[in-house]
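Summary for the steering committee. The consortium agreed at its last meeting that each partner would contribute one worked example illustrating the joint modelling workflow. Our contribution is presented below. We chose a case with several input lines so that the handling of multiple components could be demonstrated. No manual editing was applied between input and output; the record is shown as generated.
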Amino acid sequence: MKKALVVLSGGQDSTTCLYWALSQFDEVQSITFDYGQRHKIELKSAKKVAEIAGISHHVLSIDTFQKLGGNALTAEQEVKNELNDNNLPNTFVPGRNLIFITFAAAFAYQQQIQDLVTGVCQTDYSGYPDCRQNTITALELAINLGMESQMKIHTPLMWMTKAETILLAEKLGAFDALAWSHTCYNGQYPPCGHCPACELREKGFQEAGIPDPLLSQRAGFPQKH
Amino acid sequence: MKKALVVLSGGQDSTTCLYWALSQFDEVQSITFDYGQRHKIELKSAKKVAEIAGISHHVLSIDTFQKLGGNALTAEQEVKNELNDNNLPNTFVPGRNLIFITFAAAFAYQQQIQDLVTGVCQTDYSGYPDCRQNTITALELAINLGMESQMKIHTPLMWMTKAETILLAEKLGAFDALAWSHTCYNGQYPPCGHCPACELREKGFQEAGIPDPLLSQRAGFPQKH
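What follows is the complete predicted structure of the assembly.
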């Protein structure tokens, strides 16, 4: 009986990962972090996605990032498309993925789950250094040493382009759920269409040559935005 | 101008580290985590210690561990002196140090501080795997890859016995602050004297042949407990 825990943001990549996990493991659970993100709408998306996939869904709150402030995702700053002076996006929340994955591992530890799945991706990526394979490999080691555990952090999308991820999602039957996933950094529905996250999503579907089910399938959604 | 950030729990080891940092760096700041610990009294100790040392003190709250539950430090469980079935103390909070150090690094990142100091110790230690050098080394790498930073995590007490730590604290002039540090897991003042943390502290002072300033120096403290 192989169990896995998927870190589910409610976005397209983690939704695809959830379906990947369903194809690989006997039991799949999901965990979502409520960390004061401006796009709170993704919490609703995550819940809906887990419901469509028929898996259990846990929400863990983290109040710390908001107190740290200093970035456009958890503080009152406008999302910028250009990079900051440090060559990182102004949506970069230092340590966010390290913290998410570590808390997910702590939760998994308590549930005797040894397989974690996260949708981080290095190809066509968002510019966050903690989405890269080297960070994940080092973190996996730190977690296993620090918890005396044997966790495996799976990153099925790491080396895929956005277009390849979309084709994988289609093959895995994830499109009904993908119609409810949320991507827009500005937390808008319909999506704003011009933030870096919207642009990356749109580029992916264009390159895959498939319409985004968020636009084509979701009931009551206007066809143009 | 070398700046350091000390992870200050308010206990004897982090208090000693704070004085070590004062001897090594031009500017020292401290950070304490309010994570729902049953020994909330240590937050007061940390504040008092930072005040005596004359350094700035930041408190960051983390509400997540309480929601995770399952251990004797953040949930309603009695602190046990014997180990659990997994050979770990029942006060083990999975991922606690990983999370603390990562949040401290995120804070340091924002303050342009590159030196972190933590009082973890592998010799005479409390049985927590995330206090060991291998965990810290892996975590330092994960943090630096994940934040594109060049943080150094200093662990001056890593290979010292408790007795050696106490002699170091004396040499560094930390005893006035140490009188206000807090160790007891049961959050009691005067300390309960029988939890694993109290026993470890007492053993250290006995071996160093020096009276604990918490007992000998602190005004109004009963001489016997």
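Chain A has one domain: 3-216. The interface with chain B takes residues 60-64, 67-70, 86, 88, 93-95, 97-99, 102-103, 105-107, 109-110, 129-130, 132, 134-135, 138-139, 141-143, 145-148 of chain A (CB under 8 Å).
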